């Protein structure tokens, strides 16, 4: 029986791997050794998957060979000084070639057959000359990988405004498209400081909480609508989707909070009942004035 696992490398990159359950006893949280194409490396097992993502063929996934031994971990720790030197070398050539890129980290595979250098940049960067220089200087195969600011934040980690670890490095598997409309539908303030995360982009929670808020919004009155309350008629000026309560402002200036079950939204017909009467009265007064003028002229 073949098992599929979601793996996370030391540099923050992720991949999926397969293993025969009879050959290796792999569990989430373990450090495993896997083979991919021409190199061997280690990664942490995050969780078990039912099937590969994106419909990939199971047999094309990297093969998990075994749980990492003490000797394997010692080899990985021995590569740390090499990674630091690789970063220094890369920084030297980036400055020399005047490339608009920010180096994030360097990672040697366990067998040192590949070094992966991750960087961020505002746009596309032509790093072909940099790869040539690094290949000669480090005498190994080089892979340069551009990542976004969200991926960068997920690598560094941190604490969000909610007081918990950032979702990008804790639970998120991929970054979905997020827009301001989601914040509007969740009745959030649209100030950048409120809806932006540590990375400076819109908060990831706006996306994966959006469906829940859309469901909570059903049956809730909108801001600006008039409603009848136990204290009289007023205008809804604020609402809380989670607690299902609304704030109502009355004509006299007072504000009270009510459960949505304790109010009754006025229909358009009720709200406009008074307006036509005033219009008709003005029309009658106008007609009456005209008639009086005619009688006076006679």
Characterize the structure shown.
By secondary structure, the chain is of the alpha+beta class. It contains 10 helices and 13 strands. The protein has helices at residues 70-78, 80-97, 128-138, 149-156, 180-185, 192-195, 205-208, 210-217, 268-271, 274-297, and strands spanning 2-8, 14-20, 31-36, 39-49, 63-67, 102-108, 114-120, 141-146, 226-229, 232-240, 245-250, 255-259, 264-265. A 5-stranded antiparallel β-sheet has the order 2-1-4-3-5. Strands 12-11-10-9-13 form a 5-stranded antiparallel β-sheet, with no helix packed on it. A hairpin with a 4-residue loop joins strand 10 and strand 11. Helix 2 (80-97) crosses helix 3 (128-138). The protein is elongated and about 80 Å long.
């Amino acid at each position: 029986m073949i098992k599929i696992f979601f793996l996370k490398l030391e540099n923050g990159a992720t991949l999926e791997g397969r293993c025969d359950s009879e050959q290796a006893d792999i569990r989430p949280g373990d450090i495993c050794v896997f083979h991919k194409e021409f190199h061997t490396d280690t990664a942490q097992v995050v969780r078990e998957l039912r099937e590969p993502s994106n419909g990939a063929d199971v047999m094309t996934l990297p093969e998990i060979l075994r749980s990492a031994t003490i000797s394997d971990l010692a080899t990985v720790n021995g590569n740390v000084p090499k990674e630091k030197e690789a970063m220094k070398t890369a920084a030297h050539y980036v400055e020399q070639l005047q490339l608009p890129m920010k180096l994030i980290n360097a990672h040697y595979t366990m067998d040192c057959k590949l070094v992966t250098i991750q960087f961020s940049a505002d746009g596309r960067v032509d790093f072909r000359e940099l790869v040539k220089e690094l290949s000669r200087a480090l005498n190994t195969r080089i892979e340069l990988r551009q990542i976004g600011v969200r991926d960068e934040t997920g690598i560094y980690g941190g604490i969000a405004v909610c007081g918990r670890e950032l979702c990008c490095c804790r639970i998120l598997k991929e970054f979905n498209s997020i827009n301001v409309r989601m914040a509007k539908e969740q009745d959030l303030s649209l100030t950048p400081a409120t809806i932006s995360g540590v990375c400076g982009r819109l908060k990831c929670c706006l996306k994966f909480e959006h469906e829940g808020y859309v469901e909570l919004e059903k049956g809730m009155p909108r801001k600006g609508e008039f409603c009848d309350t136990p204290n009289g008629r007023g205008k809804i000026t604020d609402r809380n989707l989670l607690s299902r309560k609304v704030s109502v402002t009355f004509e006299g200036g007072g504000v009270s909070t009510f459960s949505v079950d304790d109010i009754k939204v006025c229909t358009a017909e009720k709200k406009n009942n008074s307006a036509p009467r005033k219009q008709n009265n003005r029309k009658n007064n106008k007609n009456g004035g005209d008639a009086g003028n005619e009688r006076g002229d006679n």
